Amino acid sequence: MANVVVVGAQWGDEGKGKIVDWLSEQADIVVRFQGGHNAGHTLVIGNQVYKLSLLPSGVVREGKLSIIGNGVVVDPKALIDEIDRLGGQGVAVTPDRLRIAENATLILSLHRELEAIRESGASRIGTTKRGIGPAYEDKVGRRAIRVMDLADLPALRGKIERMLVHHNALRRGYGMGELSPETVYEELAGYAPRILPYTDSIWSLLDARRREGKRILFEGAQGALLDIDHGTYPYVTSSNTVAAQAATGSGMGPGSIGYVLGICKAYTTRVGEGPFPSEQDNEIGRLIGERGHEFGTVTGRPRRCGWFDAVLVRQTVRTSGINGIALTKLDILDGFKEIKVCVGYRLDGREIDHLPASEHAQAQVEPIYETIEGWDEPTAGARSWADLPAQAIKYVRWVEELIGCPVALLSTSPERDDTILVQNPFET
Questions:
Q1: Which of 358, 382, 386, 399 lies in the 20 to 30 Å Cα band around 228?
Q2: What is the mean pLDDT of residues 177-196?
């Protein structure tokens, strides 16, 4: 029985919510291990639609323990708002259902303000302006306020003063007004009663549950191509999004990780700035975007769309150690007379089989496409291979060959039951 890590195999927005929800029914514990409320999952359960940003997808299911790990940066206001919103939908998020790592870093309003002013300049990278990056900067700069600090308010003022030495210098440089320690203290002290009941020593809790034989599902945010080390730097998020972070971001050893499931669309999308070799800034891209409803769950921003890039997914299969792929939104390609796939790049007159690490080189690569015949019959709602057109099956097999990884699940609509299971990650 394997513990399962779910990661995005592209730039995020691959449809992880549906897959994680499907897997969470089999899991005992669901753990978010990185990112913040810049993530977005849409879950459709019966007639109810849940939009989650910070809370793990398992939180809407009875009898499941959801955990926000130490690798996550937590905006207390956003967390409380999300808990209250779910409460309005009939989901009571109690400490029996949710635990938060005591050593997770907090996002404060000053982080949001700092990111917003940075993103208003010429050097913007297309962030969600939610303070994620500045909070991670404080974490590695060893000046962050952490969840556990809310439990010791008398000692909090000194930590705030230390943090403001850095932030007020930045605010002066950007022409912003300085903050007083008391203002930040009042903000944090107001959150403490709502946040503290959920806190726990997560590494210890998970170790005990693992030894009991509980099934653990690790849920990542964004995608592997937004990883701070392995993504399209500097147009990346501020955390490690690859599967190895599941161990670091939850306090479990790497031996506790079993099967890695990568999620990718049958085409490619990206939000924000940065390279996108197979982007179709034309009628094809617009058609994919319209049919796929490609707008960000968190921001509502339209996503850039293009053909499936096998080079990139093959690369993330390796950097995340992906064992199987969940291929989503195959139905969006229904009716295309021909479908292209990027199988390589051309850079400075030579062919290469990977995305180079250099920002300049990434901007210069040209896609090399191969074309396959499309299909007219619908794949939408298919729940078995027999329901799929032969040409659609051929496309899936071609993708498997190009990325060097088998398709474990195939998703053909947002409905959770419209899923073709090839290999159950929990039963490997």
A1: 399
A2: 96
Name the pTM for this structure: 0.93
**Candidate list 21, 37, 41, 167, residue with the active-site label:** 41
- Options 13, 21, 75, 227, the catalytic residue: 13
Backbone angles phi, psi at 276, to 5 degrees: -155, 80
Query: What's the Cα-to-Cα distance from 401 to each of 226, 269, 331, 387, 398, rounded to whole Å?
Result: 24, 21, 20, 22, 5
Reply yes or no on whether 166 is catalytic.
no
Distances in whole angstroms, Cα of residue 416 to Cα of each of 18, 77, 412: 6, 30, 9
Please give the single-letter amino acid code of residue 61: R
Question: Are 398 and 308 contacting, i.e. CB atoms less than 8 angstroms apart?
Answer: no
Query: Is residue 324 predicted with pLDDT exceeding 80?
Result: yes
- The DSSP annotation for 392-421 comes to HHHHHHHHHHHHTS-EEEEE-SSSTT-EEE
241 is in an annotated binding site: no
Would you say 40 is a known binding-site residue? yes
Is 300 assigned to a binding site?
yes
Q: Which residue has the tokens 């879950």?
A: 43
Question: For 132-158, what is each residue's pLDDT tens digit?
Answer: 999 999 999 999 999 999 999 999 999
For helices 153-173 and 109-119, what crossing angle results, to 10°? 10
Contact 107, 130 (CB under 8 A): yes
Mean pLDDT (whole number) for 14-18: 86
The answer to whether 183 is a known ligand-binding residue is no
Known binding residue 75? Answer is: no
41 labelled catalytic: yes
Domains of the chain listed by start with CATH number: 4-100+199-259 (3.40.440.10), 105-195 (1.10.300.10), 264-427 (3.90.170.10)
